[in-house]
Amino acid sequence: MTPITEVEGRRLALSNLEKVLYPQTGFTKAEVLHYYAGNAEVLLPHLRDRPVSFLRYPDGPNGQVFFAKNVPPGTPDWVTTAEVPRSEGPARMVLVQDLASLMWAANLVTEFHTHQWVIQDPGVADRIVFDLDPGPPATVVDCCEVALWLRERLAADGIDACVKTSGSKGLHLLAAVRPTPSEQVSDYARRLAVEAERAMPRLALHRMTRSLRPGKVFVDWSQNAARKTTATPYTLRARPEPTVSAPVTWTEVEECEAPEQLTFLAPDIAPRVQDYGDLLAPLLDPDSAGSLP
After folding, report:
1. Which of 20, 191, 203, 210 is most open to solvent, judged by the fewest CB atoms within 10 Å of its CB?
2. Following DSSP, what letter does each residue of 68-97 receive, concatenated?
3. Any signal peptide, and if so, which residues (predicted)?
4. Strands (E), the chain
């Protein structure tokens, strides 16, 4: 029998709670739901008003993994949805606006991926992102070196960057910017990626060419395109362990000497939030937004 629970006055059917989704650690679906509920206070502000793409893995990361951008079948009528413009025609997507809709979405077993813009102004970015992706044998330690260069380069333009782990192999650099068309943000991000490659030719790479990537850090600027999404802060990832896309301090980046120092699992996050609060809070503050040159 599927348990029924009530969240903020909404009735939810939570299924397969004992299913082990991360066999390497024995992490269950119930623990996934507990993680999202326990960290909703810091996660929800980064989801609110941003159309969500779900990366679903109902049988764990070793099972079928698929993206769902449109509103999933069976979505309750109390879950907020919105029409989103696309080049191939408008689509209807989910907005996770509150704890009840977060728990409904988490029950589908998801990673959360969001755009760099809010639904009130689609295609006009309020943040910039760089996805630093290491090509083996490069690791997140190499990403840290590139991240520190990008932080200083952004600061020279009056833009204050925050950083989080991707929850996979690399890092995400993010910064709040004053509302700017996504095309302009993409162009600026690409220029900085090119500059990074010129400044660190043995380490940084701005091109997506696979054959060039071993041993280098790909500075992926393309996720600033209006159609693209990036893993939302605090989302779980479909990896062998329940890793999280976790905000980190710049001191942790500066002092990183081994990948495990910047690997965070679901149980690590609540203590970090207690110690640091939301390290990405500046992304939510319009007063901290920089202007692109």
Report:
1. 210
2. E-SPPTT--TTS-EEEE--TT--EEEE---
3. none
4. 4-7, 10-13, 20-22, 27-28, 52-56, 66-68, 81-84, 91-94, 110-114, 124-134, 162-165, 171-181, 204-205, 217-220, 230-231, 247-248
Q: What is the CA radius of gyration of the chain?
A: 19
> Higher model confidence: residue 3 or residue 259?
259
Of 293, 289, 174, 291, nearest to 231 (Cα)? 174
Tokens (6 digits) for 275: 């110690």
**Residue 278 is which amino acid?**
D
Whether the pLDDT of residue 121 is over 90: the answer is: yes
Distance (Å, rounded) from C-alpha 180 to C-alpha 292? Answer: 8
What are the tokens at 94? 């989910």
What 3-state DSSP class applies to 111? strand
Question: How many Cα neighbours within 13 Å face the side chain of 45?
Answer: 12
Residue 90: count other Cβ atoms within 10 Å of its Cβ: 10
Cα–Cα nearest to 222, from 102, 83, 129, 120: 129
Distance CA 257, CA 251 (A): 12
Closest to 291 measured CA to CA, from 142, 149, 159: 159
Q: How far is the C-alpha of 160 from the C-alpha of 125, rounded, in Å?
A: 16
- pLDDT 10s digits, 9-45: 899 989 899 999 999 999 999 999 999 999 999 999 9
What is the DSSP-derived secondary structure letter of residue 11?
A: E
pLDDT category, 3, cuts 50, 70, 90? Answer: confident
Distance between CA 44 and CA 267 in Å, rounded? 18
